[in-house]
Amino acid sequence: MVEFLLATITVPAYHQQEAWIWIPILIAVSTLVVVIVAASDETKTEKLIGKSIGVLGMIGAGKTQFLKNLQGKGQEYKKEGYQGTGKDEYQEFTCSIGDKQYKIKGGTDIGGVEDNIKTFYEKFLKSKDICIFLFDIQKYKDDSKYRMDTNARLDFINNHIEDASKCAIIGSHVDKAKIKKGQSIITIVQKFVKEKEYARLLNSNFFACNLTNEEDMNKLVNKLFL
Ligand SMILES: Nc1nc2c(ncn2[C@@H]2O[C@H](COP(=O)(O)OP(=O)(O)OP(=O)(O)O)[C@@H](O)[C@H]2O)c(=O)[nH]1
Ligand SMILES: [Mg+2]
User: Is residue 74 in contact with ligand 1, taking CB distance under 6 Å?
Assistant: First the structure.
């Protein structure tokens, strides 16, 4: 018995060294945070009623991609890559998903530059049945200046609409957002606006999605319109 104990205690020096190397590695692994790409997600949803849509949002957020998707030209636009938008008129068109169809009135696709806020936001919020606001959710999470600018526009929208159920907010580029495993990208954004009046806009019909992904887009259109 005594002999056995002695044998287990006298570990050769090189083995002891190996053990010391492993201890910090094991501690690091046990505290390791797994980072993943955020999945598409949404709050509770409610169908938007109306035919005219005002698409508002930040520069490069995906307004044109969203409109082209509705027109069935999304994949072509994705291939063309980002062009930037000044002010493009579009005619009435029918959006088809599966066997369902939805008619959308003609309108204007406006660029996301700040100059357009005064000119178009108020007009769109007054004259369109439905308002869709888009921002890049990856930038919102990681870039405080972008977050501030987005929040200013959310505040503007909130002050100019009475009925939040006429509005949907889309956080695009979810495919680029990295979060810790177990977190929800929707909850992360909601926490940033907690206690702000415009937080109500993110309580329902708030989507985090990849607008260049057909499946995401079809789900979105089904939830919002069809
Ligand atoms: N990976 C990824 N790319 C996206 C997503 N949404 C849009 N894009 C791409 O981002 C780029 C900008 O999208 P646009 O639709 O042109 O942006 P916009 O809001 O119209 O931009 P402005 O007109 O300049 O204000 C395009 O190359 C799109 O294909 C998304 O959810 N994920
Ligand atoms: Mg555009």
Answer: no
pTM metric for this prediction: 0.88
- Using one digit for the tens of pLDDT, what is the confidence trace for 20-60? 888 888 887 777 789 999 999 999 999 998 889 999 999 99
Q: Which atom of ligand 1 is nearest to the CA of 176?
A: 1
Interior/surface letters 174-198, b for 16+ CB within 10 angstroms, e for the rest:
bbebebeeeeebbebbeeebeeeeb
| Other C-beta atoms lying within 10 Å of the C-beta of residue 20 | 8
Structural domain boundaries of the chain? 38-224
The three-class DSSP label of residue 77 is helix
Best residue among 124, 207, 211 to mutate for probing ligand 1's pocket (most ligand atoms within 8 Å of CB) is 211
Among 53, 64, 79, the mutation site with the greatest number of ligand 1 atoms within 8 A of its Cβ is: 64
- Pairing of β 130-136 and β 167-172: parallel
Cα–Cα distance for residue pair 73/75, rounded to 1 Å: 6
User: Is 204:213 a contact under the CB 8 Å cutoff?
Assistant: no
Q: Could you give the 3-state DSSP secondary structure of residue 67?
A: helix
Its CATH architecture, for the domain 38-224, is 3-Layer(aba) Sandwich (3.40)
Q: How confident is the model at residue 79 (pLDDT cuts 50, 70, 90)?
A: very high
pLDDT tier, 115 (very low <50, low <70, confident <90, very high otherwise): confident
Which residues, at least 6 apart from 111, have a Cβ–Cβ distance to it below 8 Å? 59, 84, 85, 86, 87
pLDDT tens-digit profile of 167-178?
999 999 999 999
